């Protein structure tokens, strides 16, 4: 059994040349370096730094393309393929693409990453000793991020989603800060690995930030009013909501706060597009 450490960068010695490439050696272990895995001509007894992985047949294979995603080393990897019930494949800069297992993706496929999204991963192994890409845990993120400065408050910010559920979304910003987006500060749940943009609404004492993906009040009023009009048109011009409706009912239907709902209603009434009576709102 070959005991070379897969998923790592090793210094090996060229043992011999063969038709398909080179046989490399480290102590008593060997690995094959194919011609298409190196850009240079190698000589017998030359030392070379290579990344080790297993090919489709399970053989230990070497490449002189040295990735930054390694065993116990984390970096961003781009999603190149998504297969339902299996997972997402990412590229780490070598010929073989690494699988992020379905077990390490969100329960609901509608927030799985899409091709072009990026995941913050390391390498690990499955029960058959095959390399997998493993998303970073919260503990790893805490040791990776920097502390956000207070002056970031109210500033625009962008970042990649590394965790998401119905309660909220966590991102790593482009400046390497941890950001959290409460479910009330987003209109829909972002995908894992998606690049999102918003604004900082709080810089916390621990150096993390809270972020909103919603527009400012003056910008969102028209958008919210359009959503209410669209809902009215889909329901024969009448909805069982007014400015006195329960906040949770409003959020459950329109995904906005009661305050935002009231501002949008006020605008529509001022424009003469709606009226309220008997606990309902009607199109005029």
UniProtKB/TrEMBL annotation:
PROSITE patterns: S1. Pfam families: CvfB_1st, CvfB_2nd, S1_2, WHD_CvfB. Residues 154-214 form the S1 motif domain. InterPro entries: CvfB_fam, CvfB_S1_2nd, CvfB_S1_3rd, CvfB_S1_st, CvfB_WH, NA-bd_OB-fold, S1_domain, WH-like_DNA-bd_sf. It comes from the Bacteria. Coiled coil: none annotated. PANTHER family: CONSERVED VIRULENCE FACTOR B. Belongs to the CvfB family. This is S1-like domain-containing RNA-binding protein.
């Amino acid at each position: 059994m070959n005991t070379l450490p897969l998923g790592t960068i090793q210094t090996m010695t060229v043992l011999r040349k063969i038709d398909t490439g080179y046989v490399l050696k480290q102590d008593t272990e060997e690995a094959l370096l194919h011609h298409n895995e190196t850009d240079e001509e190698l000589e017998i007894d030359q030392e070379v730094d290579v990344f080790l992985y297993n090919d489709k047949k399970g053989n230990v294979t070497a490449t002189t393309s040295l990735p930054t995603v390694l065993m116990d080393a984390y970096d961003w990897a781009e999603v190149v393929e998504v297969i339902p019930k299996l997972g997402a494949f990412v590229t780490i800069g070598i010929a073989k693409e690494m699988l992020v297992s379905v077990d390490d993706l969100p329960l609901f496929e509608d927030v799985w990453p899409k091709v072009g999204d990026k995941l913050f991963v390391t390498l690990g192994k499955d029960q058959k000793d095959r390399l997998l890409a493993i998303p970073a845990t919260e503990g790893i993120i805490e040791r990776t991020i920097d502390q956000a400065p207070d002056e970031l408050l109210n500033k625009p910010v962008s970042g990649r989603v590394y965790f998401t559920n119905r309660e909220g979304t966590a991102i790593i910003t482009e400046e390497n800060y941890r950001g959290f987006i409460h479910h009330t500060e987003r209109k829909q749940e972002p995908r894992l690995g998606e690049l999102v943009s918003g604004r900082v609404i709080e810089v916390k004492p621990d150096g993390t930030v809270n972020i909103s993906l919603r527009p400012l009040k003056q910008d969102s009023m028209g958008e919210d009013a359009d959503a209410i009009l669209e809902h009215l048109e889909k329901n024969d011009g009448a909805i069982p909501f007014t400015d006195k409706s329960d906040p949770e009912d409003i959020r459950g239907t329109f995904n906005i706060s009661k305050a935002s709902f009231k501002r949008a209603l006020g605008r529509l009434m001022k424009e003469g597009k709606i009226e309220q009576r008997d606990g309902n709102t009607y199109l005029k």
